[in-house]
User: Fold this.
Amino acid sequence: MQEFIRLSELILHDDPQARTAWYQQGLNYYGIHEYEPAIRCFEKALEIDKEWGGDWEWVYIYSLTGEAYHLLGDHEKERKIYELGLSILPDHPAIIYNQAVCALSRGDKQEAGEYIEKYRLIRETEGREDFWTDYNIGLIYQEAEHFDEAMDIFSKMVEADPQNPAVKWRLGYLLIDREVDVDKGMKLIDRALESAPGHTDYLYTKGLGYYKQGKIEKAHEVLKRGWDARNLYYHEHYLLMKEVEQALASR
Assistant:
């Protein structure tokens, strides 16, 4: 990822008005959890866009900038960027989704419920399957750190469709990460891996589970297998790999 940051810096040195390059650099920083420099880059991209007329129909510049504000706890700026995005892309579901996360995080359940229902209606109008709409609503609760509600949604979905690996993984991840029931979470991950043995996110979660169980060698083996198979950088996987390697080295 540092190489991508360096390359983007070179592009911006040659063309400091490259709106897309500023966005990409923000994305690079966002990907390694450096949210303050990410915001500076996103804001620069938006500043250039405003000079060009301010009608950039690229939803991720609004959703990711808002998410970066969210992760730094600046909900006022988060709300404003979503309003800007919706003024250009009315009723875009990705922004409505983020508005629901923001409202839940602020403790406004009534406002969040309105956004969630609006999100559901938009997805129904688009013809999206109810299953995947429910799945994303579970993610809304997860991202807002309302973990009990998220686990309740995913548990019901596992009961409704026990063959679907994605929802077993989501529930398993929460059970493991929140240390609610690591053993049960691992069983769910194993079932998900039966359907997709090489899925890198499933392998990451199984490695996390082994680590929580104190099985350091197994954790390292599974995490490395998942890491070597990845096509895209995933910072949480990288950080856990380093933590596990340090645990092995300290033995």
